[in-house]
Amino acid sequence: MTPQSPQAQQPSPAIVLVTGPSGAGRSTAIRSLEDLGFEVIDNLPLSLLPRLLEGPPPSRPLALGLDVRNRDFSANALIETIDQLASRPDRAAQVLYLDADEEELVRRYSETRRRHPLAPAGTPLAGIARERELLSPVRARADVLVDTTGLSPHDLRAEIERWFAPSDGRQLGVTIHSFSYKRGLPRGMDIVIDCRFLRNPHWEEKLRPLDGRDAAVAEYVAADPRFKEFFARMKSLVDLLLPAHKEEGKSHLSIGFGCTGGQHRSVAVTEQLASALAKDGWHVSKRHREMERRDALGNKGHQV
């Protein structure tokens, strides 16, 4: 089964089976689904799943976290369950599989200093290899496959929302990102606009240590002779696109603004557009990737 794309996504399923290797983000995905209104049961033993499904249909969608560490976990049994659900139109189900590359999983275990559950006396690499082999048949049956390599918890939550947020009667959510081109494009962007043509506050000594959230920087950027027309045309384009995407049933749209350092111009434009769209009644959130990274480096105990 080939994992579908968000654009081809069907209405939210009645049941989402969430699994994947340890450290790939399953817990974050489960919490994200709970925030979206799913009833969540984590670490459900497979032996109890048939009994759960025999009961009356749930009043809201279910998210079931399936952990390979459960003593009765079996990839074959899970495949059989997936097949049974596929034959029941009253219990539409999808398999959400969280994965990450081997190097990323090893890094995450090294940072937490945890032992891998499938190799308590060995290296994390040995446990990761064993777990991925065990789960390979399930991965092949995934309806939604999310590679979390390089994703922050915030990024993963946004990705889960893109896949599973209900669209019926739900207002389109808009996330506006600022970023530095030096670190590449953020994942999952629908629209990206380059702000590097605007004059750069970095070259003003007094403005250099500040960022685009400061009034002085915002005023400097807005004073560029090209800014007023740029912002007006860009805002008109966004005003045209948002209702169209909502009519198509899309639940979330991500807009990115990039500049050289991700500190001044892109941040200022992100702030201004977020404010304008919020005043228009849209549900808006904003992210400043490089500011978050700077804060994380200043506080290593905080994970962004």
What do you see in this structure?
This protein has helices at residues 26-35, 49-54, 75-86, 102-112, 124-140, 153-164, 215-222, 227-247, 265-279, 289-298; strands at residues 15-19, 39-41, 62-65, 93-99, 144-147, 173-180, 191-194, 252-259, 283-288. By secondary structure, it is of the alpha/beta class. It folds into two domains: 6-164, 3-Layer(aba) Sandwich (Rossmann fold); 173-298, no CATH class. The strands form two sheets. Strands 2-3-1-4-5 form a five-stranded parallel beta sheet, sandwiched between helices. It starts with 14 loop residues before the first strand and ends in a 6-residue tail after the last helix. The model is unreliable at 7-12 and 299-304 (pLDDT under 50).
What is the fold's blueprint, element by element?
Layout: E1 15-19, H1 26-35, E2 39-41, H2 49-54, E3 62-65, H3 75-86, E4 93-99, H4 102-112, H5 124-140, E5 144-147, H6 153-164, E6 173-180, E7 191-194, H7 215-222, H8 227-247, E8 252-259, H9 265-279, E9 283-288, H10 289-298
Parallel strand pairs: 1-3, 1-4, 2-3, 4-5, 6-8, 6-9, 7-8
Helix pairs in contact: 1-6, 3-5, 4-5
